[in-house]
Amino acid sequence: MSTEVRNLEPKEVWNMFADLNAVPRPSKKEERVIQFMVDFGKKLNLETFVDKVGNVIINKKATKGLEDRKTVVLQSHLDMVHQKNAATNFDFDSEGIKMIVDGDWVKADGTTLGADNGLGVAAIMAVLASTEIEHPNIEALFTIDEETGMTGAMGLEGNILKGDILLNLDTEEDDEIGMGCAGGVDITATRTYKEEEVPENSNAFSITVNGLNGGHSGMDIIKGLGNANKIMNRLLFDGFTNYGLRISEINGGSLRNAIPRESFALVTVDAISKEAFLFESNLLINNIKKEFATLEPNLNIEISDTNLPEKVMELGVQEGFIKSIYTALNGVYRMSPDIEGLVETSNNIAKIVAKDGNIKISCLTRSSSETNKLDLANSLKSAFELSGFSVDFSGEYPGWQPNVNSEILDIVSNLYEKLHQEKANVAACHAGLECGILGQNYPEMDMVSFGPTIRGAHSPDERASISSTQKFWNFLIEILKNTPKK
């Protein structure tokens, strides 16, 4: 499959991407891709080193005639989100991504593609390997663990980079130039419960919610897509309220920064209520499908008979649990009052696991306003604590505040207009980029973000536009030739 990808233009980028995608690179397990990048830099005889947290830095001197330009940091992250369809047999820890060309798109066979942020990494690799591209002094910064905490960016010390300008290659619309982004905080609610015997004369059912689009919990949150955890909770709430449904197990969602596509539950209902429960549940299922018919045409919800479990959740905890999920906000909390169409604050109820006497609820709250981020986080904390949960805030990272007087922003914006005879969309985004974190230790560094068009990031529907990648590559080359003097 990679042979077809390697023949795409620009070949220098797609070949680097194919090489990268052959290396398993899950977040927090980047040892192999770190070594891959070190070997790559050393093979080119470029100064290459790994910092104390695992970020890889490769330095390349300016080409002739551009020695007087400001040093540019080219930055992308090495890790990728691992999501796959339930029916896909694939081991992210040992297999390379299987890529497919479909018209103008490159996608993967039932898994995430890794274009986020692999195409950015590949473009930087292509610049480093080139003997023809004109460029100033370059510091290539390949960070780790962006997708599950941004610990690479957080751990980068302030005395390592010497660059004046940072080009972050992690934006997913090729007509967009990023000048700011949201910060975030992980909210984790946990509690224990007693397991009780399954009531006598019970029937067991497995409930499945799947077929949802999923997607990036920042960039796609505005779309109003279905969240499998919230949909499942509607079914559980209705069954519990009307027919005394009891929960044995729940497993919904996957990663904190991915909108949940699937949820599975094992429940019991009194045998005498079986027919009424199924009838009422199917009415609710039909209504939910109608609500999401436009946005989620492939939504599937099934209830089927199964074997009785050994235990169920204690009744009092179950009631508080279901009601806390119903109370907790999922989706957009507030739109930006200053930038039209930009989500300011949101929450993703990312993962819910209830089994063996333990419940864990994982959320990711994002905001470009630190005060509203805390406001929503406290709202969620209150909803869960009222039901007896312990709530922890962790992994907090700052937003990237826009700099309207940025020199590199002016240069990049003008170059885009010159190349394409139209203005770029200069905007802040609701995703979490590493620029805000990097800016804490490098406050004087001038930053922008851009990249090729990628759709469905953080889901198995992830795909990258071939024509857009060519556009992005040409744009990057022009920027490097036109960076400002020292």
UniProtKB/TrEMBL annotation:
Answer whether the UniProt record assigns the keyword Hydrolase to this protein.
yes
Extract the SUPFAM superfamilies matched here.
Zn-dependent exopeptidases (SSF53187)
UniProt xrefs under Gene3D superfamilies? Zn peptidases (3.40.630.10)
Q: Which InterPro entries match?
A: Peptidase_M20, Peptidase_M20_dimer, Peptidase_M20C
| Keyword Hydrolase carried by entry | yes
Q: Which UniProt keywords apply?
A: Hydrolase
Q: What's the domain of life for this entry? A: Bacteria
Which protein are we looking at? Aminoacyl-histidine dipeptidase
Provenance organism: Polaribacter marinaquae
